[in-house]
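ESCALATION

Customer reports they have been waiting on this structure for their group meeting. Please prioritize. Original submission:
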Amino acid sequence: MTDTATPNRKIHQGRNVKRFREMLGIKQDALAYELGEDWNQKKISLLEQKETIEPDILSRVAKILKVPIEAIENFDEEQAVNIISNTFTSNDTSTLNAINIQPTFNPLDKMVELYERMLQQQKEMIEKLEKLIQGK
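Update from on-call: job pushed to the front of the queue and completed.
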């Protein structure tokens, strides 16, 4: 059975890694450091250009970025933009009334939660870098 909503649409996992990394304010060098000795900025750059990333590497990157692996595997920016523009750009609110969206969560709370996680991760990264600097 094929998905007719997104025909021939491939998720670009490398681009998604880059998006999440940038949203979290993490440099390629810092991600490379977290992945280990055999990683460097150039290797991260090449990873972010790959459409499909090996599952074990994807799992390690997701853990470092503290995002679900499914987020990297499934996020489609174009589809998200289309949904938002089709839903909210019209002055005709009948579309929204017809859809009758009743989320079980507050989207603003989710954004605050993501922002707090980003801040915590940034704090942890700074602490690690300070320890690294003090160790030299």
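Sent to customer with the following note: The helical segments are 13-23, 28-35, 41-47, 55-65, 69-74, 77-88, 94-99, 107-135.
Escalation resolved.
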